[in-house]
Amino acid sequence: MSASDGKRYATDCFAQDDIMELVKAIPSRMATDFLDWFTYSENSIDGRSKKKAYTFLQSNLVNDEDIGTTKALQQIHAYIFGGLYDFAGKIRTKTISKGNTLFCLAQYLDNALQIIDQMPKTTFDEIVDKYVEMNAAHPFYGRQWT
What we know:
Blueprint: H1 16-24, H2 29-38, H3 45-58, H4 70-81, E1 97-98, E2 101-102, H5 106-118, H6 124-137
Helix pairs in contact: 3-4, 5-6
């Protein structure tokens, strides 16, 4: 391997595939998180969606009056994940959970989103409350639910 001083040294090392196989053998959620981080690239779904998110932030595609609504979130979700997932921007129709967290039951989701849309958003505390409720409802699928 080449060192920072420009010299080449013989050393033991793992190739990327070796590291991935080793980590896959570890039965841990943290191992999965490490693999997600380790294999991240600009060409991965995460990398492409991140680029799309930056582009979206620089655009003015959501009308000011729609900010903080389900409609705006659908537009954002569709823009960022469009072409990457077939469920981009679509409200989920199945009940989902992650770990020990159960999100809003599918049969109540439309009603919950209507209530959240009506929540005020004029103060910082109101915006935070609305964000917390939207997160608890979790209207979209994520890659782990496909």
